[in-house]
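The pair is set out directly below:
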Amino acid sequence: MPAAQSSFPHLPARPTVARSRLTSQILAATTRHPVTVIVAPAGFGKTAIAALVAHGSAKPCCWLALDQLAEPERWPALAAALRATPEAGLLIVDAIDSLPAPTEQAWRDAGVEGTARAHLLLATRTTAALPMLEQWRARGQLAVFDAPQLRPTAAEWQRAFGRNDNSRLGCEGWWGLRLAGDSVAAQIEWLRRVFLPSLSPDLANVLGAQALEPAASPVALGGWLGIGAVRVALAQHALNLDGAPLEACRAGAALGETLAAAWCLHEPALAARFVEAAFADALALRDAPRAIRLAQASGKPEHCARLLDELGWLILLGPRRDLLGDLLSGLSPQAARQTAMRLLRAAWWVELERAPVEAERILRADQLEGPQADAIQARCKLMFDDAEGAARLAESALAGLADRDAPEALLAAAALGYARLELGQPMRAIPLLRDVVSAARRDSFANLELDGLHVLARSLQEHGDYQGLTETLRQAQAHIAQSRLANETAAQSLARLALLDAHEQLQTPAPMLQPPADSDLFAFAWLVARAREALLTGRIGDAMMLGEQLDSRLLASFCSTKWRLEAAYVGIWIAGLRGDVERLRSYAGDASLPTPDAGLHAWTGAVHRAAAALLRHQAWPAPQLQALIDALAQRGLRRLHATAKLIAALSDPAGDMRLLGDWLHAAVSNGRLMDALWLAPCLSDPLARWLRHPAAVQDAAVRAGAMALFARLQPPVAESPRISPAGRPADLTEREWQVLQLIGQQFSNEQIAVTLHVSLPTVKTHINRLYAKLDIGTRAEAMQRARALQASTAVPPA
């Protein structure tokens, strides 16, 4: 039996996926019927099922794979196998349809007529190879298992692959592919060697072309394949009837890529022509995702260069921007040195890698100039906190770009909007940023839209447009969820901004995104938010510990000016509650105003200095505060303007209730009251006076909000005195510390005298002395100081 020696009588390896239901049915059929036929198109796992039957049969079993033999050897091999199969044994013949000229006489010559010696299990793609089929059926000798019976059940699919992909889209035609091996190479080889050759040329070519261009119309496919739309439609119809492989291809991108790769190997010349035509069409339509896929399928560096030359900036901002680095690396050395490619490389460094130093190095080394270079440099300048330089370069880029909707123009516009915010011009930034967000949404530039929403939200916050801010944050949250951009820098910044806005409304919700690990670069900003929340909830001891961590990180690593200012706000808050005069002196600095062309950070710092000076009872002169208020109003920095007005109201020794009333009306109306707690040591007494003022009764809503705020500023009333020696400031005597603690618990002078068993004049003497030592001016401030000192000595929670 030399002809069949290579495949008979050795059995194939046992398949890894067991199909016990179908295997049992076929085993039972081979016992009852002399001939059992498995008939289904390629891809239904006929070979795998036959192998399972071979390993599960109790009969002596022989195996013959005809497609593994040369064509002249196949009939002799079948005859030899029939003779060699033991009596009542089972002969399994795979790929019976590969027999040449399968006439009825040829079957008789091979010895099939006398099937009583052995039972046959025949696997075939078509019954045309079995001319004796009807005779076997008429004699009751035949059992047939066709494609619907071979189709795996949902349970089998789930058990085999851990999920149920056997949907109405028809994954049944791909069962054989999924059993061909775990590796993509094995699947491609099976498709190229077995599946595609089993189809007619039109079916194979349409299936492969559809895998490369799944959204193409029959007209387009027919034109690129050179066969016309009618033949394409007929082929698609036939494929959908034959195990639904076309629909399965549409259902899964991974299967589509595998099939496309196999077709390119199966018909390399036709596939190359098809890719060339489809690639040109994608470039003409400026369809970057399609063009990327086709350029990668072609494997030609010239396609990659043409793609980047025509659509490189679209790719930089588009949904497949993650592939830009690979595309740039795939260029030939000559193409990589071209000016357009070097500009794209620089843009890739700053936009995707966040490495402005590398981007500027390329621009300098290659002496790259022009509007695109200016747009890239503008983005770099923003990362270096150079808003003035960024604005100048962005304006230059926009002046040099004729198409304001071009991707590089949108980048320049986004940079200009950001620069204007940093320059303290939110009113000029907002309309520009709204246009950027709208254009990015139109063109599906998800990352640019997110960046634009972040800067727009900040601009609206600084401008005091809280209704617009709320709507922008809502849009940003929906965009982050839809685009899966939660790990992007802008998404983290938006989450912190939303948390800050909630804190300004005296709310402490959970953040919209999970904060990063402590080792992350952005953990510092989240640490500021945690300290701010601790202060809002009265956990002053926790806030002090977090403040110490912030101080350590500020000394150990670089932090942007914006983050330093956010940390300073928290530091001033803690120092004011503790009465830390030295720390407040360091925050207060001098009473100078920024220069007229100063940016947002300089004006924020000026407000911080004025607040620190107020808390240490060295308030800025009224003319200086008024100049600060006027400058902030002129620039449209309404958020800082409101804070400066509160500082001025609390700095007025004459106690003018008009300024405080104006601030209260605005703050209660928009719900932003955090500055009241920030300046709480100086607010309680003026707020109590305002509530007694006739102006307080004019607006019931404002009065109610002011009363709720006043109640929040008061320490809780103690049912019994709590006096502890712990936490006593070094310059206070033990008795003065006891008096201060009782003031913090809202005891009157008379109650303190009774509690400490001393006279009323003695209590007043102690109060005057401790006021002088701690630089305290009012009883409300003494309450706040006592509460802060006692909280700082409390044992923190585990």
In short: The longest strand covers residues 118-124. The longest helix spans residues 446-463. The beta strands are 35-39, 61-65, 89-94, 118-124, 142-145. Confidence is low (pLDDT under 50) at residues 1-8, 164-173, 242-252.
